[in-house]
Amino acid sequence: MKPIHTIFLAALCFHGVSFAESRQSTPLLGSWAVDTARLPMPPEARPQRVTISFAEKESGHLMTRVEVIDPRGEMLLAEGLTPLDGTPTPVKSNFEADVSATTMPTPDVLVMQLAKDGSPASTRIYAVTADGQSMVETVAYFGPDGQPVSRKNYFSRIQSP
Questions:
Q1: Shortest CA distance to 86 belongs to which of 17, 140, 29, 22?
Q2: Can you name the residues that pair with 58 across neighbouring β-strands?
């Protein structure tokens, strides 16, 4: 898997907080931009920009939209509407996933597992800082050598819901 393609989202299947329970206090909602200078890859391989947006679109469902402008300036798009109960749900097939399972164990944490073509792609945990202005994404996946890989991506809030 190419490093740029691992900039996306994912989740584990646990029972989480529903939007009905947490909507008023969910700091995750809104838009976020990754700090590309901190991405763990050579500068020439880094995307020009990565933004991720989270929004409630239906009761108990999360809309996630990821836009990646790759190093050549081409846009990669990933988006999906998933329930927050961990149910595997088809999402618009993209560079990394065609199925997502998403939960929100607490209002400031989102856990997502992605799969593509019936195989696991990555697990991602998004945690918003106490001030609500930063978010850390922990990404876990298997590298080309079959060894587990874990890394962090750092985001800043660019828009509130």
A1: 17
A2: 61
Cβ-Cβ contacts under 8 Å for 71 (sequence gap 6 or more): 4, 44, 45, 46, 47, 48
**24 by DSSP, 3-state: which?**
helix
- Cα separation, 7 vs 153, in Å, equals 8
| Residue pLDDT, tens place only, 70-94 | 999 999 999 999 999 999 999 998 8
Low-confidence residues of the chain: pLDDT under 70: 1-25
Longest dimension (CA), the chain: 43
Domain count, the chain: 1
Which residues, 6+ apart, have CB-to-CB distance to 1 below 8 Å?
96, 121, 141, 143, 144
Strand partners, 30: 54
Find the domain containing 99 and state its range. 3-159
**What is d(CA 10, CA 118) in angstroms, rounded to the nearest whole number?**
15
What is the spatial distance between Cα 13 and Cα 25, in angstroms, rounded to a whole number? 22
**C-alpha span between 52 and 9 (Å, rounded):** 9
pTM of the model: 0.84
30: domain CATH number? 2.40.128.20
- 117 to each of 66, 90, 161, how far by Cα in Å? 20, 11, 33
